[in-house]
Amino acid sequence: MSNVRTSRKGVLITCDVPTKQFILHLNSKQAQGFIINDLDETHLFVEASAVHEIREQLERLQEMNVYVRQA
Amino acid sequence: MDNEMMAWSHVVLSSVQIRAGDGAISKDLLKGWVRDAYTGVHRAAVRQLSALRVLVRAQELSGAAAAAQQQRRGMIALNPPFRKNLLQALLTPDVAPWKDDPRFALRPDKLTPSRAKIEGEMRRKWEAVLHFLVASDGAGAGPTPSVRAFMQQAGLMARRGRSEQLVITNRGYEFMLRDIHVQAWMFVLSLIRSKSSDAQARDDLLSFLFMLSYCTVSAALQPLEGHHNAQSVCAAPSLSCKPLPAAPSASVNRCSEKVCEDYPLLALTPAQAQLARDFIDLGLLYQRKPSSQRFYTTEIAVNLVFGAAAAEHPSRAVIQAADASAQLDLAPRMTIIVETNFQVVAYTTSDLHVAMLTLFLELRARLPNMVIGVITRESVRQALVTGIKASQILNFLKWHAHPNVINRRPMIPENIADQIILWERERTRVKYDAGTLLDLPFEGVHDFDKVAEYAEELGACLWAAREKRVLIVAAAAVNKVVAFADGLMPS
């Protein structure tokens, strides 16, 4: 019998606390969640297919918080 | 340069002089020929030559009885093949490769290009390649397909999205900042790698490179025979491109200073000819017209093998001297001042430099001899998106620092440097690692720790939680870790 009960492929996301909360928020908005395992405050294990979307959303969030002086 | 090179040639020549047998000599005797002040240099030279297997321990040479072996302890000798070929080279008057074969003898070229023309042509072509790399609007036709292929193969440029257009990558950016010798060398490396399956072709290419390093750009006035020879053999290719000392007599061919050496293309093997054609595309070699059967070398091509050493040991005085001389006439210098208000002033006249700057700068004004730009979040972000790193941008700015700023510490205002790094970090706030989550239902913590430790040793442990007995392992090592876990007895 194997000592490994389950194994699952995915992507480990390492980030700060607010960013993780934002990703949780993204997850809750989707009908089918992409989070496989909520590991701890700064780590998440998600479906590989969701990474692209997460990246884009985070970039958009950052854009919203930047003030650019008009030349 | 000279200390080191001299030490090398001194050691080699000393060992050549030993005629007896296979030329074994005791280390102490060899050292005895050196003045006390230079023993350090001498020792370093012996060490380096041993590392290159030019010098070998006499014991390693076979064919001596055990008793004799004892006696030979502490003796060194030149590597026999090296010794044989060196002697041969010293005794043959003709240095130029491909010249001794009458089948490929070339008639004198009626329209021999001048050296200035060849070097100018090389610079023009090479700049075109770099220009293409930074993708500044594609003025002109752009480089040939082989150069394009190289850019992609070496990972210097990549297709972004679905578009046909190639965009510079992180590696390409690094490539651009390097010295031209290193760039040429990287090109050669990628070529050799692409041929790595074919041993014959690879050997051909390597021998071509070595032969090139014995070519000369222009047939400078021939110094005393034999002397020239020894020089080019012992002191490595470095010397072969330097203008040789003018012979006192002016009776030599009156315009020989300007005459460039030509070499027959037909003497090359197919693989070599292919490489030569690639070099011609890049400007490293010069050919008057595509149908011509002769080619001319340039300084960069001659120094190719030597220039590679520059990449590994940039601190070496030898290389610096050679580089400085090469750079002087190669790249018009650009000097940059970074102001605390994010404004950047760059003094340059070259379009290429401007194109390089626009990778991370927003241009505001262009004057005949200078460019003014601003570092903005957006402009830096664009550079970061292509994979250029903040440290690369900063190094670029430091590398080209204006003489007035160069002695200031820090060279780049702190707030600017910090901001660029912060902008980079903004993008790397989140780290994504593909991996596999393993659920290990061990009873005790002990077994789990063992597995975690093992994964750590492999450098594959991304995350571990003892309480939950969950481990995340990098994709590459999953099988190993699972096998290890299964190997443990369930407790």
Automatic annotation (TrEMBL), chain A:
InterPro entries: TFB5-like_sf, TFIIH_TTDA/Tfb5. One of its GO terms (cellular component) is transcription factor TFIIH core complex. Gene3D superfamilies: TFB5-like. It comes from the Eukaryota. It is found in: Nucleus. Keywords: DNA damage, DNA repair, Nucleus, Transcription, Transcription regulation. The keyword Cytoplasm does not apply. In NER, TFIIH acts by opening DNA around the lesion to allow the excision of the damaged oligonucleotide and its replacement by a new DNA fragment. In transcription, TFIIH has an essential role in transcription initiation. When the pre-initiation complex (PIC) has been established, TFIIH is required for promoter opening and promoter escape. This is General transcription and DNA repair factor IIH subunit TFB5. It comes from Tribonema minus.
TrEMBL record, chain B:
The keyword DNA damage applies. PANTHER family: GENERAL TRANSCRIPTION FACTOR IIH SUBUNIT 4 (PTHR13152:SF0), TFIIH, POLYPEPTIDE 4 (PTHR13152). GO terms for biological process: nucleotide-excision repair. Its main location: nucleus. It comes from the Eukaryota. Component of the general transcription and DNA repair factor IIH (TFIIH) core complex which is involved in general and transcription-coupled nucleotide excision repair (NER) of damaged DNA. GO terms for molecular function: ATPase activator activity; double-stranded DNA binding. This is General transcription factor IIH subunit 4. It holds the Pfam family Tfb2_C. Keywords: DNA damage, DNA repair, Nucleus, Transcription, Transcription regulation. It is found in: Nucleus. Residues 418-484 form the Transcription factor Tfb2 C-terminal domain. Belongs to the TFB2 family. GO terms for cellular component: transcription factor TFIIH core complex; transcription factor TFIIH holo complex.
